[in-house]
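user: Please review this fold.
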Amino acid sequence: MKNPISLAQGREYLAIPGPSVMPDVVLQAMHRASPNIYEGELIDMMPDLTRDLCGVARTDHQVAIYIANGHGTWEAALSNVIAPGDIVLAPASGLFAHGWAEMAAGIGAQVKLIDFGTSSPWEFDQIAETLREDSAHDIKAVLAVHVDTSSSIRNDIHALRDLLDELDHPALLMADCIASLCCDRFEMDAWGVDVMVTACQKGLMTPAGVGFVFFNDKAQGRRAQMPRVSKYWDWQPRANPDQFYQFFNGTAPTQHLYGLRAALDLIHGEGIEHIWARHRQLAKAVWAACERWSEGGALQINVDEPTHRSHAVTALRLTEGRGTALRNYCKDQLGLTLGIGLGMEDKESCFRLGHMGHVNGQMILAMLASIETGMAALDIPRGSGAVEAAALVLAKQS
């Protein structure tokens, strides 16, 4: 292939699974002088901010805010309910479940990890067997990743709660919704989730740096029984502050709060049901194109069964390690950045498409057409009509 003229000038498109595309209104809200952190509008907006956060989580319970990424919220959640020596169960279907399990081990927990690989969701028979064997109820929590960003597998959190209830097991159900909140349907209270963690840089459309831990009364009861909780990670003063600084155990992430307020306004303006439907339809368009490309024998969707695929991210692989070559072409020649492969043995083959947050139909079609261009330039075998198939999905709105 001759060295092509780069067409990457202009506004780049970051199509990775987080940080997601940031709305201009969010960036504009953040672009301001630092406010007074002792009185005034910043303090006054916190009650509505926390209320609206609970609204998108579909909970009537409490939220604690941390100046942290998703890994920080993992540790924050664990630190409030898991004491050294406690046992946690971690069903894994990708890299991030392993990461949360390692975080639990790092604070002194004993981890029972069930690894289902990187292309399959949980198998509930195996989880049930482990829970049945725990007749003494030594397992204190189940660490459940709703959508694993590395594999793009979406697990059934509601079914896991049903299993815990069926077995009358008292373990806390703790859900990682870092990739799924405001993308895939999630109902904290209706699904019986006790603790949920997320971060601001994906479906919440705010630059990375703030994370959230939502918790119900059952989890708060466990917190009350803890022998000690780190003062910084303690969710109690953050969720029920007597003074403003206690929301953050110190200085507030001021610019992030203004950006988050703007993002929540967008979310509530669109409506969470419509947001879920939009992500579902855009994901179907992505899958339609990928399924056409796969007819050429070089590309494979990581998750075979559509009902197990996330609506926020799609993990793919190309034969002969060509995933990296395709990513490089799209970035250098077209200004499109695709996600790297994570947690896979064949990292050079794997890549991921982020379709979360502030995305619409024309953005997804542009991403797919750019990938088609890269595959053509690199002579990657592919089935025909991929972009047309995606367009038909959006046109039919089925």
Notes: The radius of gyration is 22 Å. The longest strand covers residues 139-145. The chain has two domains: 13-21+272-396, 25-269.
